[in-house]
Amino acid sequence: MEPERKRSGSTLKKGRKRRLIPSKVVGAAEATRSHWDLEEKQQPIAKKARLSTVLFAENCEVTHGQLCELLKYAVLGKSSFPKPSWCQLFHQNHLKNVVVFILQGLSQLHFYKFYLEFGFLRKAFKHKFRMPPPSSDFLADIIGLQKKQIIGNLPKAMEGSLPFASSKVSINLQKDPIIQKYGFKKVGLTRCLLTKEEMKTYHFPLQGFLDCENFVPTKCNGSVTDNSPLFGLDCEMCLTSKGRELTRISLVAEGGGCVMDELVKPDNKIVDYLTSFSGITKKILNPVTTKLKDVQRRLKILLPPDAVLVGHSLDLDLRALKMIHPYVIDTSLLYVREQGRRFKLKFLAKAILGKDIQCPDRLGHDATEDARTTLELARYFLKYGPKKIAELNLEALFSYQESQEPRNTAEGVQRLNTSVLECLDSVGQKLLFLTQEADASALSSSKNCQTIKCLSNKEVLEQARVEIPLFPFSIVQFSFEPFSPNLTQEMNKRIKIKWTEMSTVYAGPFNKNCNLSALKRLFKSFGPVQLMTLVLETHQVQRPVTELTLDCDTLVNELEQDSENRGTIYLSGVSETFKEHLLQHCSIFLGLEAMILPKDLKSGKQKGYCFLRFKTFGSAQRALNILTGKDWKLRGRHALTPRHLHAWLRGLARESRLPGVRVIPPSSEQEAWQMLNVDHPKIAAWHWGRKIEKLYHNLCPGTLCLILLPGTKSTHGSLSGLGLMGIKDEEESTIPQTCVCESAHHLPGVIS
């Protein structure tokens, strides 16, 4: 199958047309919100603001735009803005102030390199999350300032239809990611197909994979050529007790006609119709009798052997269909951006095709319209080629389009692209920005921002003590000199080795004839096993002892005391029915706030372990005793790895080394350890952690506080950022935590 995907750059010969299928009418990451609304309605008026127990972030990463969502909501509340998609801020009107501390030059790598030294930060802030590497102006991104990028001589026609960029605009096409991937010449259809490796990378369902055992192949195994027919596909989903399930499918042929448009009744109980995205309501779906198996059967009949499916984030659609198709074009990847980011379909439709889709005055998305749009985008790419697309300068168009939105009006304040500054201005307040003289940001020269520039971090600290109480919203930025690229790479390698060695256990002695399968089953009962090697010389159970693991016991103990882990237990050996079983006996697990059921990224299936979060450490300990007892027979302990850390470590390539080999920075790099204005980074981490602790204790109760380590970005590579978040004194809230489920299938706080 794979050899037929020839990567030739050839295009269709003149006069030769791709085969079209006759048009005949035959009939993307949503947020889990329903339980939040239920919880807020059931509780009495609270005296204190608080944050939701669990952050609902995709792969535990929060984008800069999502951070902006929270900050704007914190200022104006739900009367002006929708609730953030990744967390819930309850009783926003009882929030006193907002303070954001930015540690410029630091990243998630730095935090876990000096984890023991950042004692206050890890213990005081219950919520932690990853952030992508920063852009050129991190502050502007999280505040929501429109980028005033100089685009060149943009034509007036761009105000309406955007696909006619001026040829006078100076663009370095060589650096455009589309040119870097496809080159300058026009390409054929087969060049635009995702390879099998790309499909694996982007989690498409594939034949032979364990997570796709119950998936139905489309039986499209013909030879694909540049003349093969294209079909646009889009699906809408709802949230059920088993996860996301299909509620609507639209299939559009290359001629533009819809050949399939069906509503689908999910097999499991619906807990959220996701109407704002899907447009589907209970009333619409009630009379529907079509099931997923009916759709699968019809698709197998409709699609010819060499059909190519086109969609936007098509992996999600195929997983909703539970079908495997080998030939796909994904427009979110076809119009490639830097650093793995993707343009939204709505933007591409406007920028490339000059058409408006997903209009705000319409309830939900139109699946047929979206499917037809992806098809048109693929055809445009094939017709005009990569060079034409690169000349449009999509990044510049994106900035330009944002700048055209209405601003400084009562209506504009309520629009999603409004900045935090405009939100504050609408209620007669100003933002305080404390930073060093050398730091440049669009924020410092913005209207409605009181900027105080200092000569050093020490002066920023002194000014913060005085000024923060005078402003309802403050941003305090400390700037630190980053490590050199070589030392950063070395530090990254040491962190990988350290966590690998901490996750390694030596056990023995074992007989040469021992049953390895039984041994592996035994170890797997404690949790997932990545690798097992038989060592005959070891006479005990222990972790390896190297210079990187000398503080292992201390680190494990401190991880257990981390505020995000305290009150959370890890359980291994849980079955697919564990959730239902737990809900039936929830009365004996007092203080249960959330159940976290990790799923395999590729298969979507529930893994054999879970996390339970309780309101207090004592409740967690009592539950652990019950669940590991004779009645439940599970294995477990107090949790060690928060979700964001687990996701980060999973993304790191495994490192190994020979026992006794030391990793020492070259002598030329020793000067790089002069960081944070002190002689040693460990001392510096402890020093600045204490300084921020004193500032934090001076904040008034009810202050939303964020500590942001933005990450770093350079020509040598990028490091992801880390965010820590909490409301001062929210743990002292007297609000009762609701643990009663709405139905036997849904507990507020259960996520996967």
Automatic annotation (TrEMBL):
Highest rank taxon of the organism: Eukaryota
Keywords: Exonuclease, Hydrolase, Nuclease, RNA-binding
GO molecular function term, any single one: exonuclease activity
Keyword RNA-binding: yes
InterPro entries xref list: Nucleotide-bd_a/b_plait_sf, RBD_domain_sf, REX1-like_exo, REXO1/3/4-like, Ribonucl_H, RNaseH-like_sf, RNaseH_sf, RRM_dom
Boundaries of every RRM domain copy: 567-637
Record PANTHER family: RNA EXONUCLEASE 5, RNA EXONUCLEASE REXO1 / RECO3 FAMILY MEMBER-RELATED
Protein's name in the database: RNA exonuclease 5 isoform X3
Organism: Bos indicus
Species lineage: Eukaryota, Metazoa, Chordata, Craniata, Vertebrata
